[in-house]
Amino acid sequence: MTDPDIIYNFFQKIRTRFPYLEKDSTGEKRIYLNSGAGSLMVDSCYRAIESAGFSLNPMPGSVAPGEILTAEFHHQVRQLVAEFIGAAAPEEISFHLSTTNALFNLAFSLRKILQKGKNCLVTDLDHFANITPWETVATEQGAEIRRVKLNDDCSLNIADLLDKVDKNTVLVAITAASNALGTILPLRELIQQIKQKSSALVAVDAVHLAPHGIIDVQDMGCDFLSFSGYKVFGPMLGILFSRKEAQSLVTPYRVETNKVVAPFCWEQGMLPNITLAGLKGALEYLLEIGREFSEKKAGWQSNRNCFRKAMEIIKIYEENLSLYFLEKLNQLKSDKIRLFGITETARVNSRVPTFAFEIKGVRASDIKKLFWKNTRILIADGNHYSAVIVRHLKKEALNRVSFAHYDNREAIDCFFQTLENILHKT
Ligand SMILES: Cc1ncc(COP(=O)(O)O)c(C=O)c1O
Q: For the whole prediction, is pTM greater than 0.90?
């Protein structure tokens, strides 16, 4: 068990790796508390992008050195992603424009099983990226869409989910962590229960879990999983894991001349080399964190172990940030502010440091402006594309403040100072 002070101090030093943490691109000071919308890019991502621009060939191949290098490079990035999420092989990893795009591609590829007489579950806790693609394809193909409800406290109604799964369920689309509320779902247990009741495939949206905790697709037991590069300190792209055993069921979009085997069958057109280089740079940064905290013994420093270690340490650090945040909120003792999602400090390990809140009687868009005008703190307002949660609460919009491992207690203090001022004046 690593000493919490060592972890805290380590993450204070790491802040220098994020050039835009304390200033924006104009050089003006600001506090970025909107990592849920997109994390900041780490320096190794920028550097990798620059050097790839000088070295890679547009086209991979097997004759000229530039072609060979590019083919090897694509393989290395897939391998690194596979190690990040615990996939069995690099062929299970494909690259897409975004997670939304990956999930549309996936839903389309499963159109043959989304047929009349079958059903597909989506949840009210999910981002629309993991709802609309399924609704679109299932509706067109004649399959029934079943929507899993929320409980009053905005947790997912697990009994409703299991009730809706039956022998005709062909797909369950579910989030690993809510980008609106920060709630983490116990997917390992849930997927086991789903698979006991049906032979449904499970597609996981891991966008909001990826920067905050360990992803292990073997342990989780999902068939598909997607996440985004720009939420893990890298560039904009979507990554799809598709389990080898599920390959025979998919028919992705492809032009006639495209290869029929995974991962190539998933990818339309040439891969974005520069973007992949940035992703590699960002993942290598996580490996550095893992190496720092892993035992220096033979076998312990494998990439998979180091990724696990990095995400374990990040989770410990962020749980302490969440505790600090919740304690500060309790100290406020204001009945004007309401936090949604998990509020108990004892359950902090079931959430990531993403907090949705409202200040009663003030519009979310005005709160966002006040934070920016008063102290140049950037937070979010709106439905965060998890619009069903916002509708469930009968609101038009919610504010959201979201942290990552490069944030610290001082950033939370600044947030609360501004919040107190706003509460006094409204
Ligand atoms: C939970 C979740 N899923 C999916 C997405 C969509 O990701 P992308 O922008 O890569 O399509 C987001 C983006 O914010 C998200 O937070």
A: yes
